[in-house]
Specification:
single chain; two-stranded antiparallel ribbon; 4 helices; mainly alpha; 115 residues; Multidrug-efflux Transporter Regulator, Chain: A, Domain 2
Length: 115
């Protein structure tokens, strides 16, 4: 709830409402229209507070940074999916093409060279 979150993070409830109005936070709502903050919402709030309190970023800058973080996370997910796809394709391709490539070689004596 907004009062407990505000108290925990030592901010005014109006600040949380402002963050919501600006689209920086989007808590879910209960049937009684009470704001419900998830762990993800709280992590996002911590990022916002770090940016504003410790780094002096204004709210417009916070919005840009949060949007860039979301885009980066999506790109990282897409890259991971692409790597997995390529890995699967290469593995299946190599397995099929080299299935009969190994040739038995009779064992031989190992001879050490004299240096």
């Amino acid at each position: 709830m907004i009062s407990s979150v505000a108290e925990s993070y030592q901010i005014h409830p109006q600040t949380l409402r402002l963050y919501e109005r600006l689209g920086l936070l989007q808590p879910s709502r209960s049937d009684g229209n009470t704001r419900l903050y998830t762990d993800e919402d709280l992590k996002r709030l911590e990022v916002i507070l770090t940016l504003t309190r410790e780094l002096g970023v204004n709210l417009a800058g916070v919005e840009v940074i949060l949007n860039m973080r979301e885009k980066m996370e999506k790109l990282q997910q897409q890259v991971a999916e692409m790597i997995e796809f390529v890995h699967e394709q290469v593995s299946s391709s190599l397995a099929g093409s080299f299935r009969n490539a190994l040739v038995k070689v009779p064992s031989s004596k190992i001879v050490r060279s004299q240096q």
